[in-house]
Amino acid sequence: MKLNETLRPPSPLDPTAPAYKDWFHLNFADPRSGTIGLLNVSLHGSPWDPRSRAMGVVLVHSPKWGWQSHVEITGYSGANLWESGIALRDIALAIDRRRGTIHASSLGSANRFQAHLQAEAASQSIAFEQEMPLGPGWISWSFLSNLRLSGEWKIREYRTLLQNAPAYHDHNWGRWHWGDDFGWEWGCFLKGMSPEQNLSMVFARTTDRAHRSRGKPFLVAEANSKRRCFLPENIEVAFVDSFDSPLHRVPGAMAALHQEMAQPWLPGGVTIHAWQGADQLAISFVARGAAQFIAADPSERGYSFIHEMVGEYRVSGKLRGAHLKDHGAAVFEYVM
Hints:
Elements (H helix, E strand, L loop, with lengths): L19 E11 L4 E10 L8 E10 L3 E10 L4 E3 L2 E3 L3 E6 L4 E6 L6 E9 L4 E9 L2 E19 L2 E18 L7 E7 L9 E9 L10 E6 L2 E5 L4 E6 L7 E3 L1 H6 L11 E8 L2 E18 L6 E17 L2 E14 L1
Parallel strand pairs: 18-20
Antiparallel strand pairs: 1-2, 1-12, 2-3, 3-4, 5-6, 6-7, 7-8, 8-9, 9-11, 10-11, 11-12, 13-14, 13-22, 14-15, 15-16, 17-19, 19-20, 20-21, 21-22
């Protein structure tokens, strides 16, 4: 399967170039050890502004070792950029468009999560090329909900070899400033433990910064090449309890400057009910760990707080005539 993902930089004549954002993202899990994590590479700001930054982030949680993280930030000139990849010194992600594979690495002597990963698409991509409102700006989005991940990683001295592990990839681009009045709620429910069902699901909706005003919800489910995108009016979402465990906060220096966000309210779990015709799904997610990444805007003074919550989900229901009952790893993102 060919992948057509490329970075979407602004033209020199684009007056919104200072608000430019672009990123490639990979979520992954190892069902045997319970390890769940993400690797993200991103661009923030105009390509012609020396204040603009390229960034790499690794956040990985394992039941045995807890959180392992690494953040790398440099100017555009300090990164290797091409149309389908961003490579920093320690963190890189690139798309082989011809072969349809995604390649990611996490290296460096200070990086406690060492990895070489390759992911191959096991589902069709979904793209939203239109400019969807995000506060005063806009965002566009494409994703692959089901990838087969291979490679290896090492946490401390614990080495894991992967073969056909579940993974998710997305590409976001647009124009916004971190700290504007926006947020979002998003979740990827990685391929479950049932090999016969091959089920993966993705949820998303935009919000204001306080999460009092929410946009229309989006939920897509795919199992064995059968897909259902549920209508927004047929999706109900509820938060369960609150997450009370300590947050893993990065970058550390930025976290020290924002002690007011050391204990924000976060959901302890999420339930999603969706129905359409004969199809229906009931999803429940429980968080077991949460990390806070503080995103600073390079061209305007402002900060957003991206919370990555990892845990497990259970789902039951019916999709395209097939009864479903499964469980697996999930990541839920809560941005304010």
